TrEMBL record:
<dbReference type="GO" id="GO:0046872">
    <property type="term" value="F:metal ion binding"/>
</dbReference>
<keyword id="KW-0698">rRNA processing</keyword>
<dbReference type="GO" id="GO:0070040">
    <property type="term" value="F:rRNA (adenine(2503)-C2-)-methyltransferase activity"/>
</dbReference>
<keyword id="KW-0949">S-adenosyl-L-methionine</keyword>
<dbReference type="GO" id="GO:0070475">
    <property type="term" value="P:rRNA base methylation"/>
</dbReference>
<keyword id="KW-0479">Metal-binding</keyword>
<keyword id="KW-0963">Cytoplasm</keyword>
<feature type="binding site">
    <location>
        <begin position="203"/>
        <end position="204"/>
    </location>
    <ligand>
        <name>S-adenosyl-L-methionine</name>
    </ligand>
</feature>
<dbReference type="GO" id="GO:0005737">
    <property type="term" value="C:cytoplasm"/>
</dbReference>
<feature type="active site" description="S-methylcysteine intermediate">
    <location>
        <position position="382"/>
    </location>
</feature>
<feature type="binding site">
    <location>
        <position position="155"/>
    </location>
    <ligand>
        <name>[4Fe-4S] cluster</name>
    </ligand>
</feature>
<dbReference type="InterPro" id="IPR040072">
    <property type="entry name" value="Methyltransferase_A"/>
</dbReference>
<feature type="binding site">
    <location>
        <position position="152"/>
    </location>
    <ligand>
        <name>[4Fe-4S] cluster</name>
    </ligand>
</feature>
<dbReference type="InterPro" id="IPR007197">
    <property type="entry name" value="rSAM"/>
</dbReference>
<dbReference type="InterPro" id="IPR027492">
    <property type="entry name" value="RNA_MTrfase_RlmN"/>
</dbReference>
<dbReference type="GO" id="GO:0030488">
    <property type="term" value="P:tRNA methylation"/>
</dbReference>
<feature type="binding site">
    <location>
        <begin position="260"/>
        <end position="262"/>
    </location>
    <ligand>
        <name>S-adenosyl-L-methionine</name>
    </ligand>
</feature>
């Protein structure tokens, strides 16, 4: 019997709070038949790092050196650690820097300004991340779970079901490698700095809360404790797991919250986002507004526009009414044309419906921007690259 995720209990991938009630994660056939990823430096507390180092005969300051190489130099190649004893380098690499992710394919689009990587994890599972360069920022979209258990019928990742949660190490390795690529000028635009991270790849971050939170803390801490990416530039996206939003409020970390709403009414959202049967639109919007009040940061509302389903004037009017109920200027709506799954009945909106949707929101005083579909020519939306490859390669054990 699965247990609720809790600080002192084992995480199973079952979304917190969803143990009772009408919603359970949709699990992949091979769920829970995999071991845990090897422990990595970033999966360990300071005390664990020190104890392990001592067992290897290394004094405490060597742990700080390793963390400095990892977070400051973005390197796990101990052969280049000239300040580290030659005889200990290989052992340190094995114990603290096991290889957690390996690039399978990389696709480049938007004249080199978008790079999407499909990664293989230790157990053969596939996840993805997308690096996007803009004039004033460089953003990495990362995955936090293998597959996703939310079961949204229009989504490629949702069709996979949840295979397993990713470890903090697996999450942060996506960030480290991307940050090194940007620093070293491996994408168009020359050398730069990874400035933003969004949890909008595969998975529901609130379903893997503990690892996601540890990853956020280490992303935002200053080197040598972290990568030094401002928490204000990190976005956690949720489909509306209310207990997760409330826990995040209590953490008091100024990350941005994005809520994937996709529908303005419970009747429609019950169909599009099965989690709505557990936490309805009122509960989700209440929690989102509480997040705004506590953090003073505008909440993003993500809304995938699907032709004839949720993109008509009546939907825009109702959405505006529901959001304005809480007051002004607390949300920014990001409608995004759906990137449809091949052969699926759910398809992208007509451009005139997109324009009408935006106009209605604007006239109601709601900030809204049609979200850029970066990388859509390389299957760039929500888990699609991984979904295709994984489907071909099932089973992965
Ligand atoms: S839309 Fe998001 S929450 Fe829903 S199944 Fe896809 S990845 Fe999961």
């Amino acid at each position: 019997m699965p247990t609720i995720m809790n600080d002192d209990r084992v995480e199973t991938g079952i979304t917190p709070g969803a143990e009772q009630g009408g919603f359970r994660d949709v699990l992949a056939a091979n769920h829970a038949r995999r071991g845990k990823p090897p422990l990595h430096l970033v999966d360990m507390s300071m005390q664990e790092r020190t104890e392990i180092a001592q067992r290897l005969g290394l004094p405490k300051f060597r742990v700080s050196q390793l963390a400095n190489h990892y977070f400051n130099r973005l390197s796990t190649d101990t052969d280049t650690f000239s300040d580290f004893p030659l005889t200990m380098r290989q052992q340190a690499a094995e114990v603290f820097f096991p290889r957690l992710i390996e690039a399978v394919t990389q696709q480049v689009a938007d004249n080199g300004m978008t790079i999407k990587t499909l990664w293989k994890l230790f157990d053969g599972a596939r996840i993805e991340s997308v690096l996007m360069r803009y004039p004033k920022r460089t953003t990495l979209c990362i995955s936090s779970q293998v597959g996703c258990g939310m079961g949204c019928p229009f989504c490629a990742t949702g069709q996979l079901g949840l295979t397993r949660n990713m470890s903090t190490g697996e999450i942060l390795e996506q960030v480290r490698i991307a940050a090194a690529m940007v620093r070293d000028g491996q994408m168009a635009g020359g050398p730069g700095r990874l400035s933003n991270v969004v949890f909008m790849g595969m998975g529901e971050p609130m379903g893997n809360y503990k690892s996601v939170l540890s990853a956020i803390r280490q992303m935002s801490a200053q080197p040598p404790e972290g990568f030094g990416i401002s928490a204000r530039n990190i976005t956690v996206s949720t489909v509306g797991v209310v207990p997760g939003i409330r826990k995040l409020i209590a953490e008091k970390i100024p990350v941005r919250l994005a809520v994937s709403l996709h529908a303005p009414s419970d009747t429609l959202r019950d169909e599009l986002v099965p989690m709505n049967r557990r936490f309805n639109t009122e509960q989700v919007l209440d929690a989102a507004h509480d997040y705004y009040v506590a953090s003073k940061r505008r909440v993003s509302i993500e809304y995938a526009l699907m032709r004839g389903i949720n993109d008509q004037a009546e939907h825009a009017h109702l959405l505006a009414k529901r959001l304005n109920h809480y007051g002004d200027n607390w949300v920014h709506v990001n409608p995004i044309p759906l990137n449809p799954i091949e052969g699926s009945p759910w398809t992208a909106s007509e451009p005139e419906d997109e324009r009408q949707f935006l106009n209605i929101l604007h006239k109601a005083g709601i900030a809204a921007t049609l979200r850029d579909t970066r990388g859509s020519d390389i299957d760039g939306a929500c888990g699609q690259l991984a979904a295709k490859t994984t489907t071909k390669q099932q089973p992965q054990d």
